[in-house]
Design brief:
There is one protein chain. α1 links the parallel β3 and β4. The chain starts with 12 loop residues before the first strand and ends in a 17-residue tail after the last strand. It has 82 residues and is mainly beta. Helices cover 7% and strands 30% of the residues. It has a 4-stranded mixed β-sheet with strand order 1-2-4-3, with no helix packed on it. The protein contains 1 helix and 4 strands, in the order βββαβ. The relative contact order is 0.29.
Length: 82
């Protein structure tokens, strides 16, 4: 795969998942592969993982999400914890 090319990985499902008083943006590539949940550090969003996901090849079901107070969300949550 060409460096920086992530076009071979297409999200099978993207949406908002309810979480108490907010909703978190989630992307799931789906498929029968081994599920891997990508956890963001510091102020990163799920977009941080695009390059990594594009370079890891097949055989994985990749799940990314925006934590509370990060990235896309339904509204500001009163709680920014996990």
């Amino acid at each position: 795969m060409a460096k920086g090319n992530t076009s071979s990985v297409t999200a099978q499902w993207t949406g908002m998942v309810p979480a108490d008083d907010a909703a978190l943006a989630v992307t799931d590539t789906g498929g029968p592969g081994i599920p891997v949940i990508y956890l963001n550090g510091q102020l990163a969003t799920q977009g941080y993982w695009r390059r990594t996901i594009g370079e890891t090849g097949t055989g994985w079901r990749r799940i990314t999400y925006d934590e509370r107070a990060r990235g896309r969300k339904s509204k500001r949550s009163a709680d920014d914890s996990f």
